[in-house]
UniProtKB/TrEMBL annotation:
Keyword Transcription regulation found: no
Record's signal peptide: 1-16
Family to which the UniProt record says this protein belongs: Belongs to the peptidase M14 family.
Active site: E296 (proton donor/acceptor)
Organism expressing this protein natively: Leptidea sinapis
Protein name: Peptidase M14 domain-containing protein
Gene Ontology terms, MF aspect: metallocarboxypeptidase activity; zinc ion binding
Amino acid sequence: MKWFIFCSFIFINVAAKRTFEGYKVYKISPKNVNEVRFVKDLQRDGIGQLWDDQVNVDFEARIMVKPDNVENFLNKMDSSGVGYKVMIGDLQRVINEQMQPNQIRSSSYLSYSWDRYHDLDTIYKWLDEIVEQYPNIVTSVVMGQSVEGRDIKGIVINYKPEKEHKTIGMIEGTLHAREWISPAVVNWIVKEFLTSDDPGVRIMAENIEWHIFPVVNPDGYLFVIPYSHVNISGVLEADNYSDMYEIAVRGAEKAKERYNTTYRVGIAAEILYPMSGTSFDWVKHEANVAVSYLIELRDLGEYGFLLPPAQIIPNSLEIMDALIEMDRVTRLLGYYSKSTLILVVDVK
């Protein structure tokens, strides 16, 4: 019997020396298809750059406007009657604030800390340190190479290498290079699997062989400029929908207990937007996965992908709470006893 659990998380770091001084970000709320078309035309005409992959009726869209275009943008918005408001008054100031360490709350393990966001070299160095620190439990692994030839590096955490029939879990991060928070959360989970004495964490860590890749998009992580927003939502896709919904709802409820963060639960195309080529879809289709999830991280749209470092630890804690509860409910529903089951949790 073999189980496979798949999780995915996402994040980036600033490498380019471009400045966004004076750039503004606006929230726009299209109420009908004509207003959706108007919003899309703002980008087509070079007036602003949308931060959202999709623009839909009754969903807030975010658009970045450079200083030279602000007056034109405001004139068009005022004449159109489409609702809007300023989300970020100076994008560069927010970027600068995000790159400063959190002075109020911090945590670290070996050379890695959760008071700031880190570059790719720092993450890879930390993974090497983990392997050295736990030679009988952790091994290094390379999934492959990126388009530009960089290693997609990860680790395997296996407390019971002698066990023949095992549950195999996979956590991957940084599918979308612009999402800063994901590798920080992935690495927090690594730390918890190795150091936590919480009974729920120990069950997950010691009864599953974990394959963990904090950055599966190293090219983008190094070079993409950080902008756009993060949805807070849980998304599930599965044939056994009632069980999957139960697992997801219980996880969302548990995540809310700590900081009152709301995670929506439903079908991806309904609460986010239609998407294809996703990890949780691919694994489900190609490997006959019975349980498949996508969990998106903070925030509510106030900061976009520029989530302040002060929220790294709170987000990590609530996601860990959710995963422990989802694991518990999955076990209660009997899925770990089914020989052909593969569980996919894609967190980004």
